[in-house]
Amino acid sequence: MINKYYLLISIFLYKSYKFLQRFFLKNPLYTTVFAVLYCIPLFRVKVSLLNEQDLCRQLMNGSSFVRFGDGEIGILLHEGSEDFQEYDKKLNASLKKLIEYRGSNLIVGVPTRFITLNKKELETKRTLLSRVWLPFKVYFLLYFNKKRKYADAHIFYQSKKAQQVLFPVFKNKTLLFVTDKQTKKDIESKMRSLFFVGIWVVGSSVNAALYCDEITRSIDEYLEKCSVPLSDIIIVTSNGMASKILVDYYLHTKLQVIDVGAGAHYFFTEEALDMLL
Fold it and tell me: What is the DSSP string of 216-245?
């Protein structure tokens, strides 16, 4: 029995050391607060939420939309993954600017259905959810503007809500659609049957942020030849972390950028991402 407890304590101390080694020097405040809140199972954050009608109204008025999830928080913590998005300084800087931006022409989406729950509530949904979303809850507590009203980052992952909120915004607009090859294949014909898509810009499905210069070059070349007013153009982007850089890049222009995330896959299906809903 003593050996068992010794082993458990050793594992705990080793994991604690690795955690501190990974994060403390990069962000001591975050690491300290995380360590404290990790021991408080009832911790949750309060989020002021935009309802669907107000979200649609703001999008109709030209506001851009950017989504934050666990991947974005990972980049902000100088982390990344080979199969999705490696750490990138330019991306990190864009994400920080978007969090700190105070203009009324930007809507920020956060995973409200997760970060407003405590550890026990998350674990009743899925065993690993409490570990996945605690970093976001801590980062939100420390760095996000609590006075701002946020949208649900996963609202477009449900076809009915996407059609109710987004499709009226797309009507009578020229859409510049940025996505990966598979998503384009899945939705192109239905999108063209309902809306005018000026161009499809195909980006990478892995490390998408690294190819943003090519994406913006394609968009800017199209805009140079296009006679449509910028206020009648919407960049719709479903291309991982590239979407965040695009929102940041065009935020101070008259162009509207809407980051729909993987929700583009679900525009025309009755499915939803079960793990998210």
Answer: HHHHHHHHHH--S-GGGEEEEEESTTHHHH
- SS3 of residue 130 by DSSP: helix
Residue 161 amino acid letter: K
Question: In this predicted model, what pLDDT tens digit does every residue of 35-63 receive, in sequence order?
Answer: 999 999 999 999 999 999 999 999 999 99
Please state the rounded mean pLDDT for residues 138-154: 96
Binned at pLDDT 50, 70 and 90, residue 273 comes out as low
Considering Cα of 24, then 28, then 31, then 35, what sign does the dihedral take?
positive
The pTM score is: 0.91
Packing angle between helix 28-37 and helix 2-23, nearest 10 degrees? 150
Q: Could you count the other beta carbons within 10 Å of the beta carbon of residue 23?
A: 19
pLDDT digits (tens, 9 = 90+) for 70-107: 999 999 999 998 889 999 999 999 999 999 999 999 99
pLDDT, tens digit, 9 for 90 and up, residues 201-250: 999 989 999 999 999 999 999 999 999 999 999 999 999 999 999 999 99
- Residue 212 has which token pair? 């943003």
